[in-house]
Amino acid sequence: xxxxxxxxxxxxxxxxxxxxxxxxxxxxxxxxxxxxxxxxxxxxxxxxxxxxxxxxxxxxxxxxxxxxxxxxxxxxxxxxxxxxxxxxxxxxxxxxxxxxxxxxxxxxxxxxxxxxxxxxxxxxxxxxxxxxxxxxxxxxxxxxxxxxxxxxxxxxxxxxxxxxxxxxxxxxxxxxxxxxxxxxxxxxxxxxxxxxxxxxxxxxxxxxxxxxxxxxxxxxxxxxxxxxxxxxxxxxxxxxxxxxxxxxxxxxxxxxxxxxxxxxxxxxxxxxxxxxxxxxxxxxxxxxxxxxxxxxxxxxxxxxxxxxxxxxxxxxxxxxxxxxxxxxxxxxxxxxxxxxxxxxxxxxxxxxxxxxxxxxxxxxxxxxxxxxxx
Length: 374
Known about the structure:
By secondary structure, the chain is of the alpha/beta class. The protein is 55% helix and 11% strand. It has helices spanning 21-25, 28-36, 45-52, 59-68, 74-99, 119-133, 148-157, 170-189, 206-221, 227-232, 237-253, 256-262, 287-290, 303-312, 323-335, 340-367, and strands at residues 12-17, 40-42, 106-110, 138-143, 162-167, 199-204, 270-274, 297-301. Helix 8 links the parallel strand 5 (162-167) and strand 6. The mean pLDDT is 96.
């Protein structure tokens, strides 16, 4: 059995962090479903920029759209292409969705990164994309920014599945977890069903270590008197941060507030580990899979990391282990003045800017393919 498929025996779902027209048409997604037990797909502006902004895979489709809709706005042209890919992925995953009774089998499509700080516009775009794709196994990705939190509650209340993205801190994660609950409670108060509404909270991992490790390396190089203590937590902060998020999830799942919703069929909002490709070559390439396996979680994995885990990953229930050590790592992070809260704040800003830049590039590439007007 595939090592990736073995993740399901530990209660973790495997999703692919990648979408591409040629990959879908060649049956690549179906192959991963069949052979590795894949149960979901995520997309984002950077992924679409790589897929659509380079090569000619989308040119024929775009030309056909332009012929039927002369003078269409660049955003409309992009959405047409993206929605086609998302629909194709959703159809591939539909049997998984039905087999698992809406517990999995989802594909995610993100609202425009330009709206990260606009609650009302995010709500409107979520509804627009939901209606356009028209697939029950769609998740709309909404960033877990301060403006995103009320948008998440409103979108869940509208009966739309949500993938909350760009989470780095435990405080931000807890806010969106409660927003999910609030949305479900609004539906209950109106007498509406909640049993087939799903959400994941996408907690980004590797970027935290990249930032913290840079700080540690600089201080060690400068001969910091705490060098040994600093080196002792190098490469451990992101996993510790994630483990404590999961620990909070487990405790909240026992609360009376959640149990009241569970009694009405509510699904837990699973933690999803994102940014799990290793950026530091000093670390083993399956680090952020090996150490973050546990029930009611998802790991969304880029193809290269998926290949690595298939070859030499180590499946096992690792998330619930080492909680005391994780607390110690974060305590040391604070004692040593590494400012994890400041780092996660910066990472949110950088991620929004990065996705916006990718979206700029993507729209620019699509605009460049605008047919000449007579």
